[in-house]
Amino acid sequence: MTHFVEAPNFACDIGIVHLGLGAFHRAHQAVYLARYLERSGDTAWGLCSANLRSSVGLVDGLRAAGHRYHVAEFTDSDNVTLREIGVIQQTLFTGRDSEGQQGRDLEALLTRLTSSKVRIVTLTVTEKGYFLSPTSGDLLVDDAMIKADIASPNTPQTAPGILVEALARRRAAGLPPFTVLSCDNMPDNGRRTRNAIVQLAALRDSDLADWISDQVAFPCSMVDRIVPAMTDADFARLGELGVEDPNAVVCEAFSQWVIEDDFPQGRPDWEAEGVEMVTEVAPFETMKLRMLNGSHSLLAYLGAIDGVETVYDAVSRPEFRALLRRYMLKEAATTLHMPDGVDLERYADELLARFANDSLRHRLAQIAMDGSQKLPQRWLHGALERLQDGHEVPCTALGLAAWIRYTSGVSLDDRRHEVSDPLASRFIELHERHGDDPEALVAAFLAQQDIVPAALAAQQGFADAVTDGYRRLINTGLAASLSTL
Ligand code: NAI
Ligand code: CS2
Known about the structure:
This protein has 21 helices and 12 strands. It is α/β, with parallel strands linked by helices.
């Protein structure tokens, strides 16, 4: 059954600026706001959505379409809700355009961010867009882009740089700050975002850093909706349903948003749309990162090095389903401390059912991107807790072995793939230096302290398990390796 929902014609004030206009923003935050606007008629919370780095085509495409686009929410391949979204009022691009020009709409974005009507800034700039060390959470002050923002703070390129400049302008104008709400899959995402911004501000003006520290709220949030990158097949399927829209996105019907309720400048009444406003997000965030995202990463590396293409293809195989159940219940759930009433076995079953949605083509190559930024929170912190409690983590160890292989850019049957990761060139060097010696290779990867907590690297039993896993994968293949778990 296909259910159509049209967007009403509302002119809104812009109350929220979003950084990172990707697939997820269009199918998650924008949908909650659109539903809120339709129900309440409150026009204070329209969106200005900006890209800082890539996807200028999407920014311009949405402008050309009057900022209206479609979200196709699939329960399964037979049941879809086609929602037209009209809550975005403005789109901007501050990255490098096709002529190599940097910062096309930067002044427009900074002007928007200093409007008194803007009270919230949301972000989905991916984990690497915060320029933080994945293990310590400290700002990467030696990164070339952060260095450029330190040298030229009035023409910033990074998300932290843009927010620091906008907050400095608001402070100088006597305006209250906006609230900053990270919607990226990072642990303690609010606290980490605060770190990035306060540490960058401190390099410019310690009074500004103190003001941000005292005045700006950085609530944490847990976000969940599977929104794969669009494929030609997705556009063709939407065409069959009567939707010709280059800015459309396809996603699952499920959606969740848990937010720490700390919005001193006000916020939309999100609860009415099903958002859970809570005092502490951490248990839900850790549960989702370790169980859902941790499972995704297991499939991504073990599947991708064996030629499996999508999440659906992987979970259609009993050996992968068994691996995920075992990982989720024995290695992830056992590290969680959930409020009463949360049934983790049921959560694991629900996740398996979501992964088996036959209408999504969620490519493992997409999930495999940026492993250096993702693995600490998905696998490594939980693994360390279990090992310190005297337990083993065989699924995580095999997953890590698969990730190490994946970063060589060569699958188990010697096919090449692209490795998209800010540390990709470092990985290639490690493979060139130690590729012939699994023990040395694993030791070299475990010694990367900006990815692997030192206490985990020091667990010899874990290093041995990863090395065994690596040997098994290359000598006996995936199926045999999984069967020994
Ligand atoms: P996407 O590939 O469609 O968009 C990525 C966005 O991040 C683009 O706007 C891009 O310009 C921006 N970006 C990338 N690197 C950046 C950098 N260094 N600085 C500034 N901006 C940068 O990806 P999508 O699906 O929108 O996901 C984005 C993030 O949203 C994920 O990394 C994750 O943290 C979060 N998320 C995504 C979900 C999904 O299923 N797609 C679900 C839950 C969270
Ligand atoms: C995925 C997530 O790309 C990835 O790394 O694990 O984007 C995942 O689809 C979402 O977190 C689901 O909410």
